[in-house]
Amino acid sequence: MSSAQAASTAFPAPIGGVPFNSDLAPSIVFVVAYAAVIPLGLYRIIQTKSRTLCTLSTVFFVVERLVTYSLRASAAHTRSQDTSRGLTRYWQSTYGIGYLSIFSSIAAIIHSLLVNATFGVPSAPASESDLDAEKDQPLVTQQTHSVPTEGDQPRARYWYRRICISLSLSSLITLILGIVSGVEYPSAESNPKTANAVEGLRYTTTGMAFIQILIFQGLSVWGYLRVPRISRSGALTMAVLCALLNVVSIYRLVVMHNKTPSLTSTGPGSLNSMTSKATFYIFHVLPEWLAATTLLAINVRQTFGTGMFGDYRLLDKKPAP
């Protein structure tokens, strides 16, 4: 094939490349790594004191990634699966949107942190002991005060809720676009128009995810610096986890310009070289595992005061007559 023909049929290189024999060992490593986290996720669900819907999407993510790397290990061992359209579609979809499952958990926790910090305390100014005494209470319980207390900030609470809910809803658009780009990816191999569309969707999806995660990271840092009664350690932890997730976004934005004439090509830009695979495991796979493991290692319900459901109200509960 001439270079002109190769250029005309080139399509976006698959993120992570296709699994070759060299992918078997790292895939097995992450199968074991995610398998080790599943008992922790199940423990959080089973134990009443740590059970919260805020981390449920992260538990699902861990299970899904166990399946992902099991399939990747199988494909690395069985070369006939290299170009499977179904597996290619699945991998490009899940790599594009999977880490947003962790982000949805982080967004719910940051939302709760900010809202919790607006409730008044029996005495003003708020002391650390006041905050520690309320940590074990579900967030919902904290929203049922019928008597206003000193330091209550209903206006700030109103805006925190709307900002966080609006941003969380916008992430649904990112998810949809990411799914579409993954589903259409196999068609991009032979259709230049689809290839251009998939490239645009991948940039849009990852760019939106980067901005959404960055905004929540900014809210965490702002809360740490400017919100008096927020859990400082909680806000800092969420900012670090957001940074981990955006390592994935940045990696994707850096490599997505690459194109290849074939899924199994090992030429420049194919993302199938040993160096490309190494950067994929270091900057895409590892940060996801670190973020998910950290989130499930923490008792989110008690540490961040999320309660069972997080902050699910648009308005405060009206006082009983």
Word description of this protein:
- The protein is an all-alpha fold and 321 residues long.
- It has a single domain, classed as Rhopdopsin 7-helix transmembrane proteins (Up-down Bundle).
- The protein has helices at residues 3-9, 24-46, 56-77, 85-97, 99-116, 128-134, 139-142, 154-188, 192-226, 232-255, 274-297, 300-304; strands spanning 11-12, 259-260.
- It has a two-stranded antiparallel sheet.
Short descriptors:
321 residues, mainly alpha, Rhopdopsin 7-helix transmembrane proteins, two-stranded antiparallel ribbon, 2 strands, 68% helix
Write the SSE topology.
Elements: H1 3-9, E1 11-12, H2 24-46, H3 56-77, H4 85-97, H5 99-116, H6 128-134, H7 139-142, H8 154-188, H9 192-226, H10 232-255, E2 259-260, H11 274-297, H12 300-304
Antiparallel strand pairs: 1-2
Helix pairs in contact: 2-3, 2-11, 3-5, 3-11, 4-8, 5-8, 5-9, 5-10, 8-9, 9-10, 10-11
